[in-house]
C-alpha cells in the first residue's frame, strides 16, 4: 500500500518547484501570485517567457490580472501564461481567464510512483545505450539534445563551462543528475532528476523527433528511476503531457494525481 497520498505528492512537487528557481530567472512573489520571467536561454516553443506559476487570492481577479499585466508589460512582453491547478483560488479562476480571452497553451498531468525493488530492472532496446552525464563529452551531448529537441538557443562556451562545474558539484553532493541516450553513438535523448530526501523529481526529458518511438525515453526513464532509488529516494514525482509522455509514464507504473492547465493571455 502506498504511503504517499495525492495531497502529499502535490505539496512535495510545489516545494520542489519553489526551490528550483535558477540564476537569471526574475521572480515576483506576492500574497496573491508568483510570477516568473525566464531568460532567453530557457525559452522554447513549450517554455514561454512570463508565467504565473500559482495564484491564490481573495482579491478581485480584475485587480490581480491588472497587476500581473503591468509587470509583464514592463518586461516588454505582450503575453503572460497563467497556470491553473488544484490549489488555484478562487475556484472560478479558469473561467475568468477564458472570459479574458485566455487560450489553452499547455497542460500537464502530475504523476508519481513509489520506487520498489522492481525499479532496478533495465528497460532499454539493445540499440540504445545510456550514460550518466559526468564529464564534458556527455554534457555537450545532452546539451545538443536539449537544444535541438526544445528549439533553444545554443549555449556559449562560458555557459557550458559553468554548467559543467554545476554538474560535477551536484554529482558529488548526490542532489541532481542527468542521463543521455545514444543510438549508434548519436546522442538522441536526455532527462534529469533532482533528489530531495525521499523524493526524486524527474524533469527535463526530451528525445529528438526523428528518434522517437524507439525506446530512448523509456531507457532514460528507467535509468533515472534506478539512480534515484540508489540515492535513497522512495518515490518519483514528475509531470507529463497527457498525449505525449503521460501514457508512457502510466505504462511504467506511474499514477496520475491531478492536472495542471496553462492559458495564454494578451497583456497589451
Fold and architecture overview:
- With 268 residues, the protein is an alpha+beta fold.
- The chain has two domains: 6-108 and 260-266, Aminopeptidase (3-Layer(aba) Sandwich), CATH 3.40.630; 116-233, Aminopeptidase.
- 33% of the residues lie in helices and 31% in strands.
- The protein contains seven helices and eleven strands.
- It has helices at 6-19, 61-74, 93-99, 136-150, 157-173, 216-230, 245-251, and strands spanning 26-29, 33-37, 50-55, 79-84, 103-114, 128-132, 176-183, 186-196, 199-207, 235-240, 255-266.
- The protein has an eleven-stranded mixed beta sheet, sandwiched between helices.
- The longest helix is centred in the middle third of the chain and has 17 residues, at 157-173.
- The model has no long low-confidence stretch (mean pLDDT 93).
Average pLDDT works out at: 93
Total helical segments: 7
Largest sheet: 11 strands, mixed
Which strand order does the major sheet show? 1-2-3-4-11-5-10-9-8-7-6
Task: Tell me the β content.
Answer: 25-35%
Distance between the termini: 51 Å
Q: What is the CATH class designation of the largest domain? A: Alpha Beta
List the helices and strands in order.
HEEEHEHEEHHEEEHEHE
The CATH architecture of the largest domain can be named as 3-Layer(aba) Sandwich
Query: Uncertain spans, ≥5 residues at pLDDT below 50?
Result: none
Number of domains: 2
Q: What gross morphology would you assign?
A: globular
Q: Give the class from helix and strand content and strand pairing.
A: alpha+beta
Task: Specify Rg, calculated over alpha carbons.
Answer: 19 Å
